[in-house]
Design brief:
By secondary structure, the chain is an all-alpha fold. The protein has a single domain, classed as Orthogonal Bundle (ABC transporter involved in vitamin B12 uptake, BtuC), CATH 1.10.3470. It has 14 helices and no strands. The mean pLDDT is about 90.
Length: about 300
């Protein structure tokens, strides 16, 4: 394993020790960070590795939330089976939506992802008999074997850890190398005989799968689901997480999720102007830190490292 893999393992082990401090606040915060960190990583498979900007990724997160919640509440299926199926609902939706989206490029692709996300939100919002409409779905309890926030934190840590290692294997595989080649020059990649649209669609499906997994985790963690989980501000927030951490670093989105969620909890406890502060962060990020936090740190290390 690489040095980065060992660092990741060390961080995950340290996170696993947090509940021993007895702090419910940090258990809550870290669970939230893990869930949205996975969501941001799944988006970055498209954004940072394939060069596709999605403005509608909340659709798959929301589908994961509702798939898990409805299977438990409406169908009476046990949590284990419901959660295991969640990712496949997201992948199926990504297959259908991605089939149309990858036919377009750049801004047209981004706008079409947003349009499909709004369609998903509208269906969830209007289908009262199934989804509960704007009142959502309540009382989604922890399963018996995960009957506390601490146990659910460890479950989330395990699921996210496995997902992170799978995603890391994907981006470091020949498949991942092809995605990066497509990102850098899709025309040349197609010229050498690679089916660019097919690989973009596969990346879309994998991204949708893990986005839905994060949604399923969040549905039970939050104990309730609302149509807003599919709405465009969620897509915008996870996009900011990815950019804040650094989309050209594998661990960047995790860092961005941690920083943004911690800031949101702290800032909203003092002021109601979080959207203004979030907009300010985005402006500063785009102008002064285009490589994100991880990119900035890596650049500083390179400058400080003595030349041989």
């Amino acid at each position: 394993m690489s040095r980065q893999d060992w660092i990741l393992i060390a961080i995950l082990v340290l996170m696993g020790l947090i509940p021993l401090t007895g702090s419910r606040y940090y258990v809550f915060l870290l669970t939230d960070i893990l869930i949205f960190g996975l969501f941001a990583l799944s988006l970055n498979l498209l954004l940072g590795y394939t060069g596709l900007v999605s403005f509608g990724h909340a659709a798959y997160f929301g589908i994961g939330c509702y798939a898990c919640g409805l299977l438990i509440k409406k169908a009476g299926i046990t949590f284990g089976i419901a959660f295991a199926a969640t990712g496949f609902f997201g992948a199926a939706a990504a297959l259908i939506i991605g089939f149309f989206c990858v036919r377009l490029t750049r801004i047209y692709f981004a706008l079409l992802t947003l349009a499909f996300s709004q369609i998903v939100w509208a269906i969830v919002f209007k289908w009262n008999s199934l989804t509960g409409g704007d009142t959502g779905i309540y009382d989604i309890h922890f399963p018996k074997f995960l009957d506390s926030r601490t146990k659910y934190f460890y479950f989330t840590l395990a699921v996210v850890s496995i997902s992170v290692f799978i995603l890391r294997k994907i981006v470091n595989s020949p498949f991942g190398r092809i995605l990066m080649t497509i990102r850098d020059n899709p025309e040349r990649t197609e010229f050498i005989g690679i089916n660019v649209k097919l690989f973009q669609l596969l990346a879309f499906i994998i991204s949708g799968f893990f986005s839905a997994i994060s949604g399923g985790l969040f549905a039970v963690f939050n104990h309730s689901i609302f149509p807003d989980f599919c709405y465009w501000p969620v897509s915008a927030e996870v996009l900011i997480m990815t950019l804040l951490g650094g989309m050209y670093s594998f661990f960047g989105p995790l860092v961005g999720a941690a920083v943004l969620l911690y800031l949101r909890l702290e800032v909203t406890s003092y002021t109601e102007y979080w959207p203004f502060i979030l907009g300010t962060i985005l402006v500063l990020l785009l102008f002064f830190f285009p490589g994100g936090i991880v990119g900035f740190v890596q650049d500083r290390i390179k400058r400080w490292r003595p030349s041989k």
